[in-house]
Amino acid sequence: MSKFSILLLFMFIFVARAFRNPKMALSPNDPTSFSRPDLVAVTNVHFQLFVNFEKKILQGHVILDAERKKPTNSLILDVQNLTLKSITNCKDDSKLEYTVEETVSFGSKLRIKLPNVPESEDGKTRYQIKIQYETSPKAPALQWLDPEQTSGGKYPYLFSQCVAIHARSMLPCQDTPGLTSTYSAEITAPKWARVLMSALHNGTKDVDPFSKLSTFYQPVPIPSYLIAIAVGSLVSKRIGPRSSVWAEKELIDQSASEFSETETMLRTAEEICGPYVWGVYDILVLPPSFAFGGMENPGLTFASPSLLAGDHFLTSVIAHEISHSWSGNLVAIANFEHFWLKEGLTVFLQFKIIGRMFGEKVRHFYALMGLSELKDALKSLSPEFTKLIVNLDGIDSDYAISNVPYMKGHTFHFYLEKLLGGPKEFEPFLKSYFETFKYKSIVTTDWKDYLYKYFSNKTQLLDSVDWDAWLNKLGMPPVIPNYNTDLLNACINLAKRWLSWDENTASNFEKSDIANLTAQQKLQFLSELFADEAVLSVRKMEKMQEVYDVDSVQNAKIRFMWIRLALKSRWEPKVEEALDFVTKHGGMSLIRPIYRDLYDWQEMRQRAIENYMKTKDKMMFVTAQMIKKDLHLDYN
Ligand code: BES
Ligand code: ZN
After folding, report:
1. CA 350 to ligand 1: nearest atom
2. β-pair partners for 173
3. CB–CB of 68/76 below 8 Å?
4. Which of 161, 91, 100 is nearest to 127 (CA)?
């Protein structure tokens, strides 16, 4: 064969593969993004947007500052459901040609023809591009609530949720965490509303009798998924020297008291990780439809109202979100295949903070509770997603998010800390890791290489780690550390008593059985019963209610487990309560398992589906998608 025909053959194979494998058109570094920051990187986004509550859209423009990295004549961005009005070169207002190509389930590729720009004095080629656009009322990133979905019931509400890859439905952007940029914003909203963003607030002024303009800037470069906005009738209350809590006025006092430990948590995190770079640390308590326990938007954690348990029991979520100020936000991941690296390390930091505040035994107990949750989660996960590093080729990252990156990831860090000589060796490593990689986006190998570099005197120990098993194998972690079980034993023992009680004999259960248990232990007691192969009879459940009065507990996590246990026992009168619960709460970790349990109970399946159909329009996009899948309604 001549050289020419060999070349032709290779070209044919290359082109054929490109057609077969959609990834060829995607970013080489991120299978969930089209954008190419390796060619031209966006360095700042400036928003000028009007919040249109009538139409449920954002209208206006973004100005993107971008810098050329390699020879190219186009800027490639991600977009989803955006109406593009015009794209211009800011320098001379000239129109730029663009095309929207290759629409897949998670968006399209926007290719903008770059203008000819002379090199700057420093040898760099910079662009400033203005994109006039509108979002869609169905944008996955934006949750538009009618007044009746808020506590006050009087005003509408808007909040965003860009993780993992929804920012592209809020603005045209390089929607990969492999790229970080600063941002600034001018937001026009109705006068009654308060606008908050994941940025520093720079003042507000009236525009006309009905609207006002709020300005923000985020001087630290962040991935697109950390851009966040909330607009509603909000008030605030100071809870620390750098922290306020924001909520509708009906929830503000309760929120301030629930999150009163915030500053202690921040200080503890700084002791472990180094300086906090984001200035303020505020918390926004959202309406119930918020799909997560918490979300680490920089300087403004979004929190679910389900955390307001009245007993500070769920505030460990705040320790988690605070920890993201280093893990994930300061040191970003290059793409969501390495989600475990930020979430696993964040849980590890979260539990360390808990340990410092409440004792090492409590830290170990949290780790053990996490392992029970992991075991339960593994039952309903497809095998690929039980690995730490996942393959997201052609997969929407929302579907890959599970307990695995969190708890298997935590276990890996805990195991390494012990192996490498305990906290006195490992904590200085953490500080050095954050310092080394701050403002960068990394993958698992960068972290592993740095471990080897930092612990160069412990190479043998590191070589003893089965890296492949930890990172690439399915299921439970390959090693379970020797956690202290003191706090767990009380839960297990009480659960055993209930399991072994012969209902034909008199019971010897008393309210005092649980009097000395913490709220976490009560939860774990119920989890132990739930995880056991044996099913408690309805009679035993009724007895438990009679002795412990579980029904009167307000804590959402305990209610959640109690409902799951009741469904497992096929305790029919509790189904109504289960349906109420999934309607009232919005956190996916609270409502998805209950929907799945109801689905598995043949006779109740239809009721679960009907409840979903009735309420799905009030759910966040991602929640509705996930439950649709849980209820096997994907093809209807
Ligand atoms: N970053 C996550 C929330 C998230 C993950 C949003 C994936 C969208 C996609 C946040 O930090 C988180 O992990 N929240 C947890 C609570 C935490 C204590 C485990 C949650 O909301 O369940
Ligand atoms: Zn997290």
Report:
1. 18
2. 78
3. no
4. 91
What protein residues have CB closer than 5 angstroms to ion ligand 2?
343, 346
Nearest C-alpha neighbor of 182 from the set 304, 29, 305, 64: 64
Delineate the domains of the chain, giving CATH numbers in brackets.
Answer: 35-137+156-228 (2.60.40.1730), 326-472 (1.10.390.10), 487-630 (1.25.40.320)
Ligand 1 atom nearest to CA at 291: 21
Q: DSSP 3-state assignment of 435?
A: helix
Residue 243 CA to ligand 1 center (angstroms) comes to: 21
| Ligand 1 touching residue 144 (CB < 6 A) | no
CA distance 250 to 234: 10
Encode burial over 154-188: b for 16+ CB neighbours within 10 A, e otherwise: ebbbbbbbbbbbbbbbbbbbbbbbbbbbbbbbebb
The C-alpha atoms of residue 395 and residue 493 are separated, in whole angstroms, by 43
DSSP 406: I
Q: How far away, in angstroms, is 519 Cα from ligand 2 center? A: 22
Instruction: Say yes or no to pLDDT of 226 above 90.
Output: yes
Quote the distance between the C-alpha of residue 532 and its chain's center.
30
**Other C-beta atoms lying within 10 Å of the C-beta of residue 596:** 17
Please determine, for residue 4, whether its predicted confidence score (pLDDT) is greater than 80: no
Assign 11 a pLDDT band (cuts: 50, 70, 90): very low
Residue that the structure tokens 């459901």 belong to:
81
CB 161 within 8 A of CB 303: no
**Residue 174: which of 20, 353, 44 has the closest Cα?**
44
Whether pLDDT at 84 is above 90: yes
Ramachandran angles phi, psi of 520, nearest 5°: -60, -40
CA 91 to chain centre: 38
Ligand 1 neighbour 296 (Cβ under 6 A):
yes
Q: Which amino acid is at 303?
A: A
> Does a cis peptide bond (omega within 30 degrees of 0) precede residue 164?
yes
Least confident of 1-10, 81-90, 104-113, 516-525: 1-10
Q: How far apart are CA 61 and CA 205, in angstroms?
A: 20
pLDDT for 16: 37
87-91: which pairs have CB atoms within 8 A and are 24 or more residues apart? 87/112, 87/129, 87/130, 87/131, 87/132, 88/129, 88/130, 88/132, 89/115, 89/127, 89/128, 89/129, 89/130, 90/63, 90/128, 90/129, 90/130, 91/115, 91/117, 91/128
Predicted model pTM: 0.94
Span from the CA of 293 to the centroid of ligand 1 (angstroms) = 6
Q: What does the pLDDT read at residue 563?
A: 98
Q: How many CA atoms lie within 13 A of 534 on its CB side?
A: 13
Q: Name 540's Cβ contacts closer than 8 Å, sequence gap at least 6.
A: 498, 501, 503, 569
Backbone dihedral region of 359: left (phi > 0), alpha (psi from -120 to 50 degrees) or beta?
Answer: left
Q: Residues 295, 163: contact at Cβ < 8 Å?
A: yes
